[in-house]
Design a protein that fits this description.
seven-stranded mixed sheet, 22 strands, alpha/beta
């Protein structure tokens, strides 16, 4: 265990952090004053670190710092200069890729090779939005009154962002990059279970030229430091990534403060396989859709809808494939699937499997279990209907519910018979059917003969219990700005106010 703590502390030191989790406010690392929070290694189940909740005072200081720094960032330098700073941040992130990946792997329990990919994607996020910094402009509108009317797109001011434990650094970059590209200040609160890489990301960004205090990180709890930020006068918008249950509470708090919100919540996405699909390809895609990341992904293909004629064959292929997946130490290069990230989620996932078994599901799973860690082996639940709890509630683990369907119409009906609307996919050789399914299935993202492709340049978000708003692509630029309409009376004699008569 001491070796793992040594690796963590060495990685933290190399990115400019101290020995334990601390908030970053106005460019300074700060200890909290609230309740003690313990970080547990999901692989060893031993304590990695302890720290104190940021609490209300640090939250208020962070909002004030962001408000002060935002003015200079939005008005004191050009948009092109903002883009250059963001390019420097991208390069700095890549220069620190390995220690960032190590921290993420140890604390979140994600395989190290996955963490390296996600850190690289964070750099890509800053590069992408750097290019947009000086290209966000309004339009001239030919209004009938003869006025010159044009619009400006202006930053909101300070935004408060809350990110989850399943992909801390990825979602941190995903939210911060578009917000600062458009001239905003940021207060971000990562999950109290995985706060370190977000602090490290912002510390690295400041070393690369980001103004101190423009982005502030709160290490702490939602009901204390999070609620204080939502209520602060400087905050103009709230962005939340996480579960529907917590998202509902955040939305209510934001609404009570008369502040808009973007919610990126959960999913129960349908991965639909027709009999004309390449079954080997579809099977590999189904494994990646639900087992990668230990199933801890909002877009996971957790409902596998399979045409009846090939249902038994595909499930057999999937079960055989599960035996070849390597579970183990997240720091090991060989590990493909790590543990569930925390004890609470582990209990939820295992409880859902037990409930499904009691409801009559045939549980197909590997028999091997590791002696330590929050490991759940890849699991298929067969024999349940689409109305079963395991088919309707988000499990957020490496567990897929397999459901047969007869034809295209039934596949669409089953896919849409859920309270979520985040993602989906279809596997078929019929091009017409592929496009019909893409149009008919309720989802913010839909894949054809693939799964989980995602890029910062494409809009991402959902509907219903999957949330609202979009958090990437050019759509995110709209979320972080407001349009201002400017009218210039160009007539030689002022028009009468009500009739616009010269």
């Amino acid at each position: 265990m001491s070796d793992r703590i040594n690796i963590l502390q060495a990685a933290m030191k190399s990115v400019g952090l101290g020995g334990g989790p601390q908030s970053l406010v106005a460019g300074e690392l700060c200890d909290g004053t609230g309740a003690e929070i313990t970080l547990i290694d999901p692989y060893t189940e031993q304590v990695l670190a302890r720290y104190k909740d940021a609490d209300m005072a640090l939250s208020q200081a962070a909002c004030t710092a962001a408000k002060t720094a935002q003015i200079g960032w939005a008005k004191g330098i050009s948009a092109a200069a903002r883009g250059l700073v963001m390019q420097d941040i991208a390069r700095a992130v890549l220069a620190h890729l390995e220690p960032l990946a190590q921290i993420e792997s140890l604390i979140a329990g994600k395989p190290i090779r996955d963490c390296r990919v996600e850190v690289a994607k964070v750099a890509e996020m800053f590069t992408y939005y750097a290019g947009w910094a000086d290209k966000l402009h309004g339009e001239v509108i030919p209004v009938p009154s003869g006025h010159l009317n044009y619009t400006l797109r202006e930053p909101l001011g300070v935004v408060f962002q809350i990110t989850p434990w399943n992909a801390p650094i990825f979602t941190g970059g995903w939210q911060i990059a578009p917000a600062i590209a458009t001239g905003n200040g940021v207060v971000i609160k990562p999950s109290e279970l995985t706060p370190v890489t977000t602090v490290a990301l912002v510390k690295i960004a400041e070393e690369a030229g980001l103004p101190r205090g423009l982005v502030n990180v709160l290490c702490g709890l939602g009901p204390t430091s999070g609620q204080a930020a939502i209520e602060h006068d400087a905050v103009r918008k709230v962005v939340f990534v996480g579960s529907p249950e917590t998202g509902r509470k955040v939305a209510i708090s934001a609404a009570a403060a008369l502040k808009p919100a973007v919610l990126e919540l959960g999913g129960k996405s349908a991965n639909i396989v027709f009999e004309d699909a390449n079954l080997e390809h579809a099977c590999l895609g189904a494994q990646a859709a639900i087992f990668s990341g230990a199933g801890q992904s909002c877009v996971a293909g957790s409902r596998l809808l399979v045409q009846k004629s090939i249902h038994a064959e595909l499930i057999d292929m999937l079960s055989q494939g599960m035996a070849n997946i390597t579970l183990g130490d997240p720091l090991s290069e060989a590990t493909e699937v790590g543990p569930i990230s925390n004890a609470k989620q582990f209990s939820h996932v295992t409880g859902m499997i037990d409930q499904a078994r009691d409801a009559g599901a045939s549980v197909l799973s590997r028999n091997d279990r590791l002696d330590q860690g929050y490991f759940v082996p890849p699991t298929v639940l067969n024999g349940l209907s689409n109305t079963a709890k395991a088919a309707q509630d988000e499990i957020f683990g490496p567990v897929v519910t397999a459901i047969p369907f007869e034809d295209e119409a039934e596949a669409i009906a089953l896919a849409n018979a859920t309270n979520f609307g985040l993602a989906g996919a279809v596997w078929t050789a019929d091009v017409g059917r592929a496009h019909r399914m893409a149009e008919a299935v309720r989802a913010g993202t839909f894949w054809i003969n693939s799964y989980k492709a995602i890029h910062v340049s494409s809009p991402f978000g959902g509907s219903l219990n999957s949330g609202f708003g979009r958090s990437s692509g050019t759509d995110a630029l709209m979320e972080y700005t407001a349009a201002k309409s400017v009218w210039l009376d160009s007539a030689p004699i002022p028009r009468i106010a009500f009739g616009y008569v010269s």
